[in-house]
């Protein structure tokens, strides 16, 4: 996002959070608002002239808001209509930033709903696990990444894989993201996992270990990484027996390779 768009998004995030905090039913309101905002993004994706009209700097903010109200009144809840109207009243650098802003707001509303149910940690873990499933099933990931298939086809395929196995929020986030891919499915799901962690002021550490980590080991590792990076860390781990021993840790773009396989490879290179 460009600077003006980032400022618009920050203002809208505050408005969204304040509105959900003031409602008596933040869980259902957040879920409905989030789902409807993501539906609005789908509408904008399909209509270029509408996107252009909603960011037209030559039009007054009230005009853009009025257009949004006429389009979505009666089709979405009052809370969603208010957010969309507020969004198009802001200054966006381009139509892509408007869509990205509404998408992020939709995801944020869904995550606030999960937070209200005490499910944020579960959603974060489910997204991480789903990304690892696709990482280990390249044929499935290839089908989900196939842009010659319609967005609905890709969503239907993923829905068959996850239906009844994850929370409603995880399902909604994953299906929406797969429908409008910006990167590979694994990268998109990992990005969603990062978004959940960020909502709680944490960063994700992705750990591959030769043997399954105990809860105590994960807690100890998180504490060590927090001292190294100076911020809260959420540890997500998976077993990779090819490492032979130890673990490989990725935090952001940094990789710490303490695996036996990694040590052997470095030794091999040093004597080659």
TrEMBL record:
Main location: membrane
Annotated GO CC locations: plasma membrane; proton-transporting ATP synthase complex
Keywords noted in UniProt: ATP synthesis, Cell membrane, CF(1), Hydrogen ion transport, Hydrolase, Ion transport, Membrane, Transport
InterPro entries (UniProt xref): ATP_synth_OSCP/delta_N_sf, ATPase_OSCP/d_CS, ATPase_OSCP/dsu
Molecular function as annotated in GO: hydrolase activity; proton-transporting ATP synthase activity, rotational mechanism
Membrane topology of this protein: Peripheral membrane protein
Subcellular location, record wording: Cell membrane; Membrane
Cell membrane found in the keyword field: yes
Family the UniProt entry places it in: Belongs to the ATPase delta chain family.
Function: This protein is part of the stalk that links CF(0) to CF(1). It either transmits conformational changes from CF(0) to CF(1) or is implicated in proton conduction. F(1)F(0) ATP synthase produces ATP from ADP in the presence of a proton or sodium gradient. F-type ATPases consist of two structural domains, F(1) containing the extramembraneous catalytic core and F(0) containing the membrane proton channel, linked together by a central stalk and a peripheral stalk. During catalysis, ATP synthesis in the catalytic domain of F(1) is coupled via a rotary mechanism of the central stalk subunits to proton translocation.
Protein name as it appears in the record: ATP synthase subunit delta
Gene: atpH
């Amino acid at each position: 996002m460009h600077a003006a768009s980032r400022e618009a998004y920050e203002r809208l995030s505050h408005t969204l959070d304040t509105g959900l905090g003031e409602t008596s039913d933040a869980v259902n309101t957040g879920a409905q608002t989030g789902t409807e905002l993501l539906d609005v993004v789908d509408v904008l994706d399909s209509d270029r002239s509408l996107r252009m009209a909603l960011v037209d700097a030559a039009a007054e903010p009230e005009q853009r808001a009025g257009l949004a109200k006429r389009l979505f009144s009666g089709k979405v809840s009052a809370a969603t209509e208010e957010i969309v109207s507020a969004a198009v009243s802001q200054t966006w650098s381009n139509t892509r930033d408007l869509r990205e802003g509404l998408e992020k707001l939709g995801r944020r509303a869904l995550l606030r709903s999960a937070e209200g149910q005490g499910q944020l940690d579960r959603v974060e873990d489910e997204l991480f696990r789903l990304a690892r499933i696709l990482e280990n099933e390249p044929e499935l990931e290839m089908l989900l990444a196939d842009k010659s298939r319609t967005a609905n086809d890709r969503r239907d395929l993923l829905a068959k894989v996850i239906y009844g196995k994850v929370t409603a929020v995880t399902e909604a986030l994953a299906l929406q993201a797969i429908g409008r891919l910006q990167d590979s499915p694994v990268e998109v799901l990992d990005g969603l996992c990062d978004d959940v962690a960020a909502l709680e002021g944490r960063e994700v550490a992705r750990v591959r270990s030769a043997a399954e980590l105990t809860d105590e080991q994960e807690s100890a590792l998180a504490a060590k990484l927090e001292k190294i990076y100076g911020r809260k860390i959420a540890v997500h781990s998976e077993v990779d027996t090819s490492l032979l021993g130890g673990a490989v840790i990725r935090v952001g773009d940094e990789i710490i390779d303490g695996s036996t396989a990694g040590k052997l490879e470095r030794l091999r290179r040093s004597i080659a």
